[in-house]
Amino acid sequence: VRLVESGGGLVQPGGSLRLSCATSGFTFSRYVMNWHRQAPGKERELVGTITSYGGSTYDADSVKGRFTISRDNAKNTVYLQMNSLKPEDTAVYYCNAQLGGNDYWGQGTQVTVSS
After folding, report:
1. What are the φ and ψ backbone dihedral angles of 52, each rounded to 5 degrees?
2. CA dist., res. 65 & res. 61, Å (int)
């Protein structure tokens, strides 16, 4: 099982980034996919979730209206489109796959929002 995040980097406030999480080794289309983030000195928080059929929810109030989760089951990949980025969005972003007792994680990608 592999989950590999990419697309992070340094961006100015107000900018955009699109994170990708490419997966392999499990039946991606059946899994709920989550994006989490962990900022320095803070606990990890759930950013949002997309179900196997594409319904999405956003748990972090601070990202609602700015972030969009999507998935491409043909490519076994989940995405996080982040717009209007703020310095407080600086964190390591992780993707996570869940189905029943299975819980898989990627290694994370750093997003830094700074001028």
Report:
1. -65, -30
2. 9
Report the alpha-carbon angle 10-12-17, nearest 5. Answer: 60
Beta-carbon contacts of residue 91 (< 8 Å; ≥ 6 apart)? 37, 38, 39, 40, 42, 110, 111
Predicted confidence (pLDDT) per residue in 24-48, tens digit: 999 999 999 999 999 999 999 999 9
Pairing of strands 109-113, 9-11: parallel
Q: 13 pairs with which residues across the strands?
A: none
Q: 64: buried, middle or exposed (CB in 10 Å: 19+, 13-18, 0-12)?
A: exposed
Whether the Cβ atoms of residue 25 and residue 9 lie closer than 8 Å to each other = no
